[in-house]
Specification:
Blueprint: E1 7-10, E2 28-33, H1 41-45, E3 55-61, H2 72-81, E4 90-94, H3 103-106, E5 115-119, E6 138-142, E7 149-150, H4 152-155, E8 160-161, E9 167-171, E10 178-179, E11 186-187, E12 193-197, E13 213-218, H5 221-225, E14 235-240, E15 260-264, E16 284-288, E17 308-312, E18 332-336, E19 356-360, E20 380-384, E21 404-408, E22 428-432, H6 435-440, H7 449-452, E23 457-460, E24 463-466
Parallel strand pairs: 1-2, 2-3, 3-4, 4-5, 5-6, 6-9, 7-10, 8-11, 9-12, 12-13, 13-14, 14-15, 15-16, 16-17, 17-18, 18-19, 19-20, 20-21, 21-22, 22-23
Antiparallel strand pairs: 23-24
Signal peptide: 1-23
Domain Disease resistance R13L4/SHOC-2-like LRR: 325-432
Domain R13L1/DRL21-like LRR repeat region: 18-144
Length: 470
């Protein structure tokens, strides 16, 4: 059996026992579930995995919850007996309840591993010396609740540790309290992506100069302050920290090459003032589920590389009048699920390079500013589920580059402004769930039809009422 699709064995299902793997010529990927049903060491060894030299990927799963009634000794024997051939490149182990990993892992008898995922192995206090694996590129550790330290035990005594590792993920390691590196040793020389999520006893991260992408989630202000140890990152995602109202002072002041910043689910965050102003290379800003964040800072004035702002499910009320005057490079602005948002403000006049404007699910938005006329580069305008929006400004007729206009779920919008007929480049108009406006835009007979008749593709309700020639 071969191919890229995984071959799944669910032991003792339809009378299949793990020993029947012995006679199968397997290559590619093999996933074995319900390993609780394996009887003992002999039963596990009967699969003869150690001789299956063409297998590249192995996944071992035990049952979820309290389904495992075997002793710890039998569980350990099972994994011991499932030793793979040394050619295996990818290994995943999930819900293993032994207190230690087998010798074939601790003695690194799989030297060709490129990716390892250890998940919910809650009794294992000691990790294998993974730092000695010369080809390891990806390492995921998830809910390894008994692990307290990542230190010399993992690195061993070599001058270089994790020489090929590119991506490291530490998630929900409830008792991890120390992550140490040794001065003068070449540890993680190629690590580019680091993800640290909800390791509640970990308060400090080591300095790893090669990291370019960092994701950090948790509750400790000390942990968040460790971001200062990574001044060369180009992408940063911060989430959690639910009680934090303000960021630690100056924690982003040295990040002059940061291009992407994502702040997610910081429920109490009130301001990002002064933390953005030194981010001269920032291109993408994403704010999501920051319910107490009511405004953007004047610090936006200095972000002259910014190209996208996406704001979702925040407490945003409006933009400052001059808040956009330093971001003339902005290409995309998206605001969604901000149920207190009332106005874009006249400050949009500065967004002369804006190409995409999307406002969705902002139930309190009642109008668009007249200064929208300055958005002469705008190509796509989407407005959806803004129930209080009752009119569009006639200045929309100055959007000379507009190619697509979508209006969905705005029941109080009763007519289109006269300026729409000046939109000579508009190719696609869609109006849906706007009952009065839909009637006014009916082909040949609606009162607003003369304003839109020049548009090649028109969808009203669920019907395509005008279509351009192929």
């Amino acid at each position: 059996m071969s191919g890229t699709q995984p071959f799944l064995i669910q032991s003792i299902l339809l009378n299949l026992v793990i020993g029947e793997l012995r006679s199968l010529n397997l290559d590619g990927n093999l996933s074995i579930k319900d390993l609780d049903n394996v009887k003992d060491l002999t039963d596990a060894k009967s699969a003869n995995l150690i001789l299956k030299k063409n297998l590249e990927s192995l996944e071992f799963f035990w049952k979820e919850g309290n389904g495992n009634n075997n002793s710890i000794e039998k569980i350990e024997e099972t994994l011991c007996g499932l030793q793979p051939h040394s050619n295996v490149k990818k290994l995943m182990i999930k819900r293993y309840e032994g207190s230690r990993f087998p010798n074939w892992m601790m003695e690194l008898q799989l030297p060709n591993l490129v990716e390892i995922s250890l998940s919910c192995c809650g009794r294992c206090e000691h990790l294998p010396p993974l730092g000695k694996l010369q080809f390891l590129k990806i390492l995921h550790l998830y809910h390894m609740d008994a692990v307290k330290h990542i230190d010399s035990e993992v690195y061993k005594d070599d001058e270089s540790a994790f020489p090929s590792l590119e991506s490291l993920s530490l998630s929900y390691m409830d008792n991890l309290e120390e992550w140490a590196t040794a001065a003068g040793r070449n540890i993680f020389p190629r690590l580019g992506k680091l993800y640290v999520r909800y390791c509640k006893k970990l308060f400090d991260l080591p300095t790893i100069p090669s990291v370019r992408t960092l994701e950090i989630a948790g509750e400790s202000e000390l942990l968040l302050s460790s971001v200062q140890n990574f001044p060369s990152i180009t992408s940063l995602k911060i989430s959690g920290f639910h009680n934090m109202r303000y960021f630690p002072a100056g924690f982003l002041h040295n990040h002059t090459v940061l291009e992407n910043l994502e702040i997610v689910y910081m429920k109490s965050l009130k301001s990002v003032a002064n933390e953005l102003e030194n981010l001269s290379a920032l291109k993408d800003l994403n704010l999501e589920q920051c319910y107490e964040l009511k405004s953007l800072p004047e610090g936006l004035l200095k972000l002259n590389s910014l190209e996208t702002i996406h704001i979702s499910a925040c407490g945003l009320v409006s933009f400052p009048v001059n808040g956009f005057c330093g971001v003339a490079s902005l290409r995309s602005l998206r605001i969604q699920w901000c149920d207190k948002f009332t106005s874009l403000s006249e400050g949009v006049r500065y967004l002369t390079a804006l190409q995409d404007l999307n406002v969705w699910m902002c139930s309190e938005l009642n109008s668009l500013p007249k200064s929208i006329s300055h958005l002469t580069a705008l190509q796509r305008l989407r407005i959806s589920s803004c129930e209080r929006l009752s009119s569009l400004p006639n200045e929309i007729g100055f959007l000379t580059s507009l190619q697509l206009l979508e209006i969905y779920g705005c029941p109080n919008l009763t007519c289109l402004p006269q300026g729409v007929q000046n939109l000579k480049r508009l190719r696609d108009l869609s109006i849906m769930d706007c009952p009065v406006l839909e009637r006014r835009c009916q082909k040949e007979r609606g009162k607003d039809w003369p304003k839109i008749a020049h548009i090649p593709d028109i969808r009203i309700g669920y019907l395509l009422i005008q279509r351009s020639a192929p």
